[in-house]
Write a structure and sequence with these properties.
Layout (H helix, E strand, L loop, with lengths): L2 H5 L2 E5 L3 H11 L4 E5 L11 E4 L1 H9 L3 H5 L3 E3 L1 E6 L4 E6 L9 E5 H10 L6 E2 L4 E6 L4 E5 L4 E4 L1 E4 L6 H6 L6 E13 L12 E6 L2 E8 L4 E9 L11 H7 L5 H8 L7 E7 L11 E3 L2 H4 L8 H18 L3 H23 L8 H4 L12
Length: 370
């Protein structure tokens, strides 16, 4: 699209999470007028750590925000997968993207704070919970629970796994329970019983349980995450310390001790859900990004990275295409095959026998042999 056309675009982004904030930054750099509508009254990201992949960091460099993100991260060279008792299964360098080779480990809260900090003042409107969206073809109309209304040439649905935009316009399929719970917290490195010695992610697997140790050295902390099989699909289930300890039976005693020492008030407890692939992500004036489009299980650590890549790809498509309609089709054609595959892979199991399917050729020759 011509620069003048882009500068005349009025864009509304629904949701100020990873995908919404990234899309807002990328789209604002086109010169468009962008407004972000977030249902929360304040931005507060709970949970623990994530890894920003090299390709994602390259997007931040392109947008001029690399330093703002990098200064609250720990750069990691590789990740390891080990048995419950610490025997190596595989070790792999992060996939490089050009000269960028590190994955940057970051706390979710720091990440959202950094993204919010690089958006123009007044762009984000808090306390705006979307109630309805009306697709009018060349524009869309929005109504919010607080009585506010808005109209935009392009609406970007970045409102997460339980997306109102997706439900009203594209798919009424409910999120899918994975039969797992995720227990996430952040602890001091001093409380990690000597298990965190560098900046690299390690995952221990056994009996359907996965334990992640993700260093946040810049904070003097480590993200400690447990994913365990569980039949309770309640979104925020009630879980006790004893329940957690049962999930880590048979693991390295240091991991058991970390679990035993946890303050349960600091543990974020969630049932694990994703969505089935959505057939179409866009109309002529509305498009989905991030979890609203392709929420995936966290086993590949690609949810946030995919959402950020969506924002970049959407901006690229608007710049390259002749109209908003053409741009949205180009965006979907570019991103959907990638995220469909990530959704599929992320649903695969993580037993020792299945590691080679997820990371072909990476298992050491001796691993898994009796």
């Amino acid at each position: 699209m011509q620069l003048s056309d882009l500068q005349n675009l009025k864009i509304a982004v629904i949701g100020a999470g990873y995908g919404g904030a990234a899309a807002a930054k990328a789209l604002s750099l086109l010169g468009a007028r962008v407004d972000v509508y977030e249902q929360a009254s304040r931005i507060r990201e709970v949970g623990a750590g994530i890894g920003l992949r090299p390709a994602t960091m390259n997007r931040f460099r392109e947008w001029g925000v690399f330093d703002a993100i990098a200064e609250v991260t720990s750069p990691s060279d590789y990740f390891e997968i080990l048995t419950a008792t610490g025997d190596p299964i595989m070790k792999e360098a992060w996939p490089a993207a050009g000269e960028q080779t590190h994955t940057h480990l970051i706390h979710r809260g720091d990440f959202i704070d950094a993204l919010m900090g690089v958006l123009p003042e007044g762009m984000v409107h808090l306390g705006h919970k979307l109630e309805t969206i009306e697709d009018r073809g060349d524009c869309a109309a929005l109504t919010f629970a607080n009585g506010a209304t808005a109209e935009a040439d392009l609406v970007v649905g970045a409102d997460g796994i339980r997306s109102v935009v997706r439900h009203q316009l594209f798919s009424q399929k409910a999120p899918v329970f994975a039969g797992e719970h995720a227990y996430r917290t952040v602890i001091s490195v001093d409380d990690a019983h000597g298990m965190v010695v560098d900046d690299n992610l390690r995952m221990y697997i056994g009996r359907g349980t996965k334990i992640y140790l993700l260093p946040l050295r810049h904070r003097g902390q480590v993200s400690f995450d447990i994913t365990a099989l569980h039949p309770d699909g309640t979104w925020a289930p009630e879980v006790t310390k004893e329940d957690l300890l049962r999930t880590v039976e048979g693991f390295d005693e240091r991991l058991v001790n970390i679990t035993r020492d946890l303050d349960m008030d600091t543990v974020n407890i969630r049932a694990v859900y994703d969505i089935d692939p959505v057939g179409t992500w866009h109309s002529d004036s509305v498009v989905l990004v991030g979890d609203a489009a392709h929420s995936m299980l966290h086993h590949q650590g690609q949810g946030a990275n995919s959402a950020i890549e969506d924002g970049g790809a959407l901006a690229d498509a608007l710049r390259a295409a002749g109209s908003v309609k053409e741009a949205l089709a180009l965006y979907q054609a570019t991103r959907k095959p990638v995220t469909d595959e990530l959704q599929r892979i992320s649903r695969q199991g993580w037993t020792e026998d299945e590691i080679d399917e997820v990371f072909p050729g990476q298992r050491p020759a001796t691993a898994g042999q009796e």
